[in-house]
Structure prediction request, 220 residues.
Amino acid sequence: MTFSSLSFMSHWTQQAINNGVSEQMIVLVLMFPIIATIIAFIRQVIGLKTLGVYLPSILAITFLATGIKVGLIFFISILVLGTLIRFILVKFRLLYLPRIVLILTFVSLLTFIFIVLGAQYKIAPITEMAIFPMLVMIILVERFINAQIEKGSKTALFLTFETLIISIFCYFLMVSQSVQQFIFHYPEIILAVIIFNLLIGRWTGLRLIEYFRFRPIIKS
Prediction:
């Protein structure tokens, strides 16, 4: 029996395509849990920290929609602005929810400026950006501000940096044609994701980074 003969889910994907569903949509839907699993593995086994699992996953997909260069510039810009506005608003001693709304308002204004400048100077990657990725990035600023409030600016900065690095890694994995084709032709890989998560869900050992951190103690 060949491996291709076991690919029973590929029949469903072909039916969906015949009924008008795009191949890219199918690949993205199947790839999302794979990306989330990679992030969970990096956090649980390797030991890197991120702002949750959902945030780097959705950020990687957003980069896929915006393009990595424009996406990074836009995301870093709104993070910097959000942080500056937060420090300015501290002097006003506002309640949490109005303060967050004000931060999101200024971030939205920056987004508006990006769009206006992109249209004026005919910058295609900006003018062709869909509204959904922009809104996702704006909303993600709230999570970053929450991390600053709960964990402090320095810790939040490291968490954001590691989140960006992992998101960029996942982005390049998602744009790989060989990966996309494999997932499209063998969608059953999602079943392996379930099994893999059951295994790492019972992980009780030290994380890889902790082995390096506590190496002197382990040796002694």
Summary: Residues 96-120 form the longest helix (25 residues).
